[in-house]
């Protein structure tokens, strides 16, 4: 089986990263260069139909694409800590630079301390600017200028546009991903893509209850690559798989056909179920349809294993700002407003630090499996971002790192 990966990054990195990826049997690469990292979301959107997974040359273009909500395929980025940072440190030392007095962007102080600590290097005068989504390249340039005036000898940057500015003003070094870091990221995205392929083959069954026959429904389900059959006098069975349903709902967030059907029917209630077997999918679809009927006359609900229900779209009265918006989120993800408020407090306390399900469980005083279920629901609704895994320190499963965005 061959998988095509889109490699996204600046001109001077994409070819090297792509060449390392092509060492892996069964991997082909679509090279997607940009002149400035802000172009990454447009590249992803333009080529999304042609690749099965994405690999970004760094966290900055990955974050920009994620925030633009254009990543509908498995995606990963090359981490610039560990081997990449150590390789850069060795080169700086070889060129005679004082690595104990540098400014460095994108990576965290903890990552720098860990790498320098292993190499026996001091970090007291190393200044770091961890990457945050709201930072612009101008902000990063300003950071390095301040540190240079304060005594930093070399500006170390992960961002091509920042390097192009700084190299004319001060000693500057551009971090480039090591082959080891690329291979690590590639393994991650291939595992994710394989898991996604297995999930996409899951059976998806929908039960659609309409007030006035099947008018318009046959045309809509055809766009899903689905088949339609009568299930009951006013209910129709939709048969498809997870992949087409995922794409048609923009990652399980909305169902455009619901609005169009509402123009022809007073009542449109649809329940989708995803299961490993037809029987499981049907049971989940029944549960989803039952919930859709409780929510309102024009509603679609997706039910997953693990008691996860997601309201895809509803024509409930428009909410008032602030707390009413939170009520809509609660409706969609099946969590209470007080729980979402507590999760917001957890997010605020954590700042830019990723959270594990164990930490969420401790903050909310719930069991860890309950916290995992909450985070999974938020991730499916686009309100939490999975960042990777953290070894748990025991023989159990590794802890997944999340960033909350609700």
UniProtKB/TrEMBL annotation:
Top-level taxon of the source organism: Bacteria
InterPro entries in alphabetical order: WH-like_DNA-bd_sf, WH_DNA-bd_sf
Name listed for the protein in its UniProt record: HTH domain-containing protein
Upper taxonomic lineage: Bacteria, Bacillati, Actinomycetota, Actinomycetes, Micromonosporales
């Amino acid at each position: 089986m061959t998988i095509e990966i889109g490699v996204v990054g600046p001109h001077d990195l994409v070819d090297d990263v792509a060449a390392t990826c092509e060492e892996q049997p069964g991997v082909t690469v679509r090279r997607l260069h940009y002149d400035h990292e802000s172009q990454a979301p447009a590249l992803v959107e333009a080529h999304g139909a042609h690749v099965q997974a994405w690999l970004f040359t760094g966290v900055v273009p990955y974050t920009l694409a994620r925030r633009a909500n254009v990543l509908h395929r498995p995606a990963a980025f090359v981490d610039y800590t560990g081997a990449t940072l150590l390789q850069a440190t060795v080169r700086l030392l070889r060129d005679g630079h004082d690595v104990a007095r540098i400014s460095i962007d994108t990576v965290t102080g903890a990552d720098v301390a860990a790498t320098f600590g292993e190499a026996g290097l001091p970090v007291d005068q190393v200044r770091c600017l961890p990457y945050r989504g709201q930072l612009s390249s101008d902000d990063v340039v300003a950071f390095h200028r301040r540190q240079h005036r304060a005594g930093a000898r070399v500006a170390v940057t992960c961002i091509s546009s920042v390097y192009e500015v700084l190299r004319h003003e001060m000693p500057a070094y551009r971090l480039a991903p090591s082959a080891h870091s690329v291979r690590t990221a590639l393994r991650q995205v291939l595992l994710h893509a394989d898991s996604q392929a297995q999930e996409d083959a899951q059976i998806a069954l929908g039960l659609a209850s309409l007030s006035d026959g099947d008018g318009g429904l046959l045309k809509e389900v055809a766009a899903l690559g689905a088949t339609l059959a009568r299930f009951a006098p006013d209910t129709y069975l939709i048969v498809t798989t997870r992949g087409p349903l995922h794409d048609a709902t923009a990652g399980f967030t909305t169902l455009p056909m619901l609005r169009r059907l509402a123009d022809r029917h007073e009542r449109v209630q649809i329940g989708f179920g995803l299961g490993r077997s037809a029987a499981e999918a049907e049971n989940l679809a029944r549960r989803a349809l039952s919930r859709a009927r409780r929510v309102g006359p024009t509603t679609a609900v997706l039910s997953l294993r693990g008691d996860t229900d997601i309201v895809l779209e509803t024509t409930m009265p428009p909410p008032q700002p602030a707390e009413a918006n939170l009520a809509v989120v609660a409706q969609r993800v099946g969590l209470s407003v007080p729980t979402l408020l507590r999760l917001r407090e957890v997010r605020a306390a954590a700042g830019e630090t990723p959270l594990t399900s164990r930490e969420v469980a401790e903050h909310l005083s719930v069991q860890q499996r309950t916290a995992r279920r909450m985070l999974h629901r938020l991730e499916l609704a686009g309100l939490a971002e999975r960042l990777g895994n953290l070894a748990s320190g025991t023989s159990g499963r590794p802890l997944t790192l999340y960033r909350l965005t609700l």
